[in-house]
Design a protein that fits this description.
single chain, 3 strands, binds heme C, mainly alpha, 2 domains
Amino acid sequence: MIIRRFLFLYFLAASIALANPLVQEMDQAQPDAAELQRAKEQLEKSSPEAVETPLFVPPFHKRKDAQALPATFCRSCHQQNPHRSNARKRAFLNMHSRYISCETCHWWPEGEQLAYAWMQVPGSSHARGMIVPRLKGEPVLIAESIPWARVLKQQWEEADEAGKVEIKAKLHHPLREKGPGCGACHGNEDALLDYGLLGYKPQRARELELNPTARFIERTEPRSADEPVRRIHIRDLLE
Ligand code: HEC
Ligand code: HEC
Ligand code: HEC
């Protein structure tokens, strides 16, 4: 009986995973030589400790509790603060990642029309859960608990160096290296998210569209690596 039930749940979960278009893209990915080479260099350079070290001191009343993370597949490798390299944006991006799924910012399949909606995900910091993309009415988020994700995590842990290179390259083949700029959600036009459909009241939607912090960060983003980074002063935000 228990085994039958387990098998039923397993196949149910497996069929959900199969129906997930992102999982399909990852399974069928054929990374080219450049992607494999890049993954190889990244894995040679990165150490798991570096990725897991907290970036900043948590608020003092939370210091003892490890902060809960959304229970998603991406988090099984990218634990605390996945955004590190862009010092001006990383705090915002890491904060957003607690209620906006990685897929929302890093997965934009070509030629597909996506919509965005809330979904309850354990570990999210937002009462409504997380904003996730929806394709043909189905939410696209890879939960940590689905069998596909668990099998992959185990393969990753057991893989040798070459195996890890292959897994990293396949998993990231359908993803965008960089997410959208702040203006994509906090700009006036062509907003990625429809705040009304997400349930925000018109006044709050307007506030989010015109958010001065996000607009400032976007406006002053250095356009090239040579351009000096502009320091942020409170008075700039009030301009
Ligand atoms: C099995 C482990 C693993 C999983 C699961 C995983 N990643 Fe990664 N990811 C990596 C590694 C390793 C790197 C290279 C890291 C580095 O150089 O710091 C990386 C790099 C990235 C990058 C930088 C661009 C690139 O391709 O190198 C992005 C963006 C990213 N991951 C997003 C995601 C998202 C979104 C998910 C979930 C859909 C995810 N990752 C799941 C291991 C993983
Ligand atoms: C609100 C949008 C947004 C969300 C949500 C988001 N990202 Fe990103 N991500 C970005 C942007 C924008 C960049 C490019 C930053 C830059 O300018 O270098 C980026 C870059 C990265 C990088 C490159 C390394 C680095 O230090 O920046 C990794 C790795 C990454 N994201 C992983 C993730 C993972 C894993 C998640 C989910 C836990 C996630 N992202 C959620 C927008 C997002
Ligand atoms: C994918 C869409 C998306 C992107 C990209 C994005 N944001 Fe947001 N941001 C949101 C949403 C949604 C909220 C509101 C969440 C809530 O409180 O319900 C928000 C809230 C905020 C807030 C708090 C505003 C308030 O009134 O509560 C700030 C500040 C902010 N974002 C700054 C940024 C910055 C800076 C960037 C770029 C580094 C950025 N955002 C990129 C969607 C986005």
